[in-house]
């Protein structure tokens, strides 16, 4: 990573989500002008939901050329797509049901499948088909939205979990011991191959971990391992999450 991370602090989840939606809209427009597809990967959890609703709202929907977007998932819980825990279900309700994105442009992680390794391989196949990396290269997403848990996890890369050490596969199943459940997740090399990674972090319950992630010793938390190799890293924070950070 060449330049220091961009850190922006907002006085609430609404302005944070608005700024994230604006960033997506701006970058998607540049790609549309270049007549190139724009690829973005979305996380689950609660923080990005408002961003998705904003993108589907009249404030943004008409300003995005949806047919030019290719939308992927960062990770998924190993539950059926209509399960309340499903990230896909949240994304569908908050975004997909309200925007003119061609169905084939959304790439769902079929994490409910019993053969998780096979589901991971097939998802890697979709990444390859759309992003067309050169042989031996990692697929390069234009934009990735990540979250961070109070334990410093991101995507479904939990502290001490096996997938943190994955350096070959693009997508992998990962067992979350503390949740006693499996997830499918993009791996660190794929996340770090992206052109731009934006963390969306809100809530005072994450402040201490965020202080350690941004200002503490390196390599202690999965979120610290997100270091785009040839890309940009941004942290969009609300005041609650940023409250323990040194003055920016
Ligand atoms: C998931 C996510 C995960 C999420 C963090 C933060 O499937 O849960 O992709 O990595 O981003 O857990 O979640 P919140 O936004 O709900 O705090």
Quick overview of this protein structure:
The chain has 248 residues and is of the alpha/beta class. It contains 7 helices and 10 strands. It has helices spanning 13-33, 49-56, 87-94, 116-131, 188-191, 207-215, 239-242; strands at residues 6-10, 38-42, 69-73, 75-77, 106-107, 143-146, 171-176, 181-186, 196-201, 232-238.
Any overview of this molecule?
The chain is an alpha/beta fold and 248 residues long. The chain is built from 7 helices and 10 strands. The protein has helices at residues 13-33, 49-56, 87-94, 116-131, 188-191, 207-215, 239-242, and strands spanning 6-10, 38-42, 69-73, 75-77, 106-107, 143-146, 171-176, 181-186, 196-201, 232-238. The strands form 2 sheets. The protein has a 7-stranded parallel β-sheet with strand order 1-10-9-6-2-3-5, with helices on both faces. Strands 4-8-7 form a 3-stranded antiparallel β-sheet. A hairpin with a 4-residue loop joins strand 7 (171-176) and strand 8 (181-186). The longest helix is centred in the first third of the chain and has 21 residues, at 13-33. It starts with 5 loop residues before the first strand and ends in a 6-residue tail after the last helix. The chain binds 6-phosphogluconic acid (6PG). 6-phosphogluconic acid binds at residues 43-47, 74-75, 87, 147-149, 154-156.
List the main descriptive attributes of the protein structure presented here:
alpha/beta, three-stranded antiparallel β-sheet, globular
The helix content is 25-40%
- CA radius of gyration is 17 Å
Strand content bin: 15-25%
DSSP strand count = 10
Average predicted local confidence, pLDDT: 97
